[in-house]
């Protein structure tokens, strides 16, 4: 009896591993399925770890892109009152901040 079960169990375990690995490769990253909101307005809050545009606050991460007129700028050049656009994912992380007229 034991010899009949071993090949079957080996096949089941192999199939389960293939399904698990295949699902991991086929699944998209968590951030790619998030809804992205674009908020337009003026900058109302700036700190070292967050920014608020038009009343919507978002967390700044290492992946946040901060641009002004098509070029990368530092967070220090973002000032309260500047016109801006903010892209925010559903978790509240800022994906991109586009500020107009920021000067380095």
Describe how the helices and strands are arranged:
Blueprint: H1 2-26, E1 36-46, E2 50-53, E3 56-59, E4 65-68, E5 71-72, E6 83-89, E7 94-99
Parallel strand pairs: 4-7
Antiparallel strand pairs: 1-2, 1-6, 2-3, 4-5, 6-7
Largest sheet: 7 strands, mixed
The outline comes out as rod-shaped
| Total helical elements | 1
Beta-strand portion reads 35-45%
Which range best describes the helical content: under 10%, 10-25%, 25-40%, 40-55%, 55-70% or over 70%?
10-25%
Q: Please, what is the average pLDDT?
A: 84
Poorly predicted sequence stretches spanning 5 or more consecutive residues = none
Biggest sheet strand line-up: 3-2-1-6-7-4-5
> What is Rg?
23 Å
| Strands, total number | 7
The assigned structural class equals alpha+beta
What kind of oligomer do you see? single chain
């Amino acid at each position: 009896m034991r010899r009949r079960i071993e090949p079957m169990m080996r096949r089941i375990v192999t199939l389960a591993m293939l399904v698990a690995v295949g699902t991991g490769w086929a699944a998209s990253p968590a951030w790619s399925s998030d809804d992205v909101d674009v908020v337009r307005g003026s900058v109302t809050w700036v700190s070292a770890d967050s920014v608020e545009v038009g009343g919507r606050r978002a967390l700044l991460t290492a992946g946040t892109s901060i641009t002004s007129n098509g070029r990368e700028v530092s967070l220090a050049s973002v000032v309260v009152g500047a016109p801006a656009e903010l892209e925010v994912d559903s978790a509240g992380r800022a994906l991109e901040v586009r500020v107009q007229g920021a000067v380095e």
